[in-house]
Write a structure and sequence with these properties.
This protein is α+β, with helices and mostly antiparallel strands. Helices cover about 40% and strands about 20% of the residues. It has a single domain, classed as Nucleoside diphosphate kinase-like domain (Alpha-Beta Plaits), CATH 3.30.70.141. The structure holds guanosine-5'-triphosphate and magnesium ion. The site of guanosine-5'-triphosphate (GTP) has 10 residues, from strand 4. Belongs to the NDK family.
Length: about 140
């Protein structure tokens, strides 16, 4: 069965939305099979976000993601990777469809990095890679 890595980012944890986000994952019918809460260090984040190295939002992204605790979730279910991306909504929360996590709960704060509440793996390869980093 397919697995994915979901992160409640520091903005989601700080706003007290971890429970609401877990609720939406479980309400959709996916199983939560792993749960960890901690503040990730730069080394983990550099490995996680290697594909974005050199982009203008890279440094602010690492800064933001290491600014406080995140909730790392291993979720399982048929087509959960695509399914959670769909629950999350588009990267920019202002344009994200109502009904999605980012559309209902997120907004653009005008900062250097999109504080968009959640991360979800985007392919089976990234899911496998990311799960081995966050659930080593
Ligand atoms: P994740 O699920 O977090 O990976 O989001 P995503 O797949 O929708 O976005 P992507 O992997 O392209 O980028 C990772 C994260 O970098 C995003 O979630 C944002 O927090 C941030 N980010 C991506 N693109 C931009 C951008 O163009 N501008 C800004 N300010 N931040 C961005
Ligand atoms: Mg991504």
């Amino acid at each position: 069965v397919e697995q994915t890595l979901i992160l409640v980012k520091p903005d989601g944890v700080a706003r007290g939305l971890s429970g609401e986000i877990l609720r939406r994952i479980e309400a959709k019918g996916y199983s939560v099979t792993g749960l960890r809460m901690f503040t990730p260090d730069r080394e983990l984040l550099a490995a996680h976000y290697a594909e974005h190295e050199g982009k203008p939002f890279y440094e602010p992204l690492i800064e933001f993601m290491s600014s406080g605790p995140v909730v790392a979730i291993r979720a399982e279910g048929h087509r959960v990777i695509e399914g959670f991306r769909s629950l999350a909504g588009t990267t920019d929360p202002t344009g994200a469809a109502p009904g999605t996590i980012r559309g209902d709960l997120g907004r653009d704060w005008g900062l250097k990095v999109q504080q968009n509440l959640v991360h979800g793996s985007d392919s089976t390869e990234s899911a496998e890679r990311e799960l081995s980093l966050w659930f080593a």
